[in-house]
Structure formats: structure tokens, C-alpha cells
Amino acid sequence: MKLFPKYVLLLLLSLAFFRCTRETAQETSSENEKPMVIRMLAPGAATAGGTAKIRIEFLPRATVKVPIYPSAYADKIDVFTGLEGPTGRVLARVLTPEEEEKGRLAYYEGDPPAVEIPVKIPAGAEPGAYPFSGEANYFYCYETGGICAKESERFEGVIDVTAGASK
Question: SS3 for the chain, per residue?
Fold first, then answer.
């Protein structure tokens, strides 16, 4: 009778280890398959009455080129009630019609421009953590094979709001 609980415990531990190992392997392989790494820089502390900027950077892998046109963008931006975020798309860079035409055949030499998302903090905002989320969208081409595509990735974070300066 005393051996039965040991076997059950051993079985449960084995299952838990297998599940953790499998999830870690899936996360690693899916991360390696993405054509770009998306780095979201949260604004850190922001003052009531000021503006916070969320920055989304796009870091292409060695085998990927980033076309100048179409531009990377963020959309589906949702900020906590009370803060004022943008509606619609926020472009990494607004291009001229000439750049748009050339951009279909031209690529950035280094990392493409980041998307900067302004969020207004009302003067009467209470201090605290205000969550935000959105979707980063970018276009890429593989250096070999000429395959180009669009990719999207969700981002989320927190804006820490502090009290405004007293007068």
C-alpha cells in the first residue's frame, strides 16, 4: 500500500516535466521561425497631464530584407479607459508617393524605423498601472527565393502613471 502513492507521485511529476519541456520547445521553435523579432519598449513612468510613447522596434533576422513600402504599422491599439490612445493605424514612417513607388523595389539597409505610439495622460488621471495592447504589422522578404509577406504580432504592456506636478 505504501508504494502506490510513490508511483502516483512519480507519474504526476513525469507528466508535469513532459508538459513543461514540450511547451518550452514549442516556444523556442516558433520564436526561431519568425522572420523578425519585435521589441516593444514600454514608456515606463508617465506623469498625469503628459504624454507617454510606446515604441515598437522591428529587428529582421539575417535572411530577411525589409521593403521601404509598405510601411510597418501598429493598429488595434487599446489603452485603459481614461487614457487617450490613437485610433486607426500608426505608421512607422509616412512615405511620399515617390518613395512608395521606389519602395516596392528598395529595402532598408539596417533596421527599419520603429513605430512610436503616443498616449495622452489626462491631467486628472489617478496614479497607477494602466494596461495597453495592440498589434504590430510588418512586411518582409526573404533574401533567397524572393518570397515577400506580411506578419502580425500582438503586444501588451503597462504605463505607470504618477501624479502630475503640484502647482
Answer: CCHHHHHHHHHHHHHHHHHHHHHHHHHHHHHHHCCEEEEEECCCEEECCCEEEEEEEEEECCCEECECCCCCEEEEEEECCCCECCCCCEECCCCCHHHHHHHCCCECCCCCCCEEEEEECCCCCCCEEEEEEEEEEEEEEECCCCCEEEEEEEEEEEEEEECCCCC
Mean pLDDT across the chain, nearest whole number? 81
- Quick: pLDDT tens for 18-33: 443 333 333 333 455 7
106 close to 67: Cβ distance less than 8 angstroms: yes
**Which grid coordinates belong to 85?**
490612445
Exposure of 25 in the CB half-sphere (CA atoms within 13 A): 6
pLDDT given at position 77? 93
pTM of the model: 0.73
Contact 71, 89 (CB under 8 A): no
**pLDDT above 90 for 44:** no
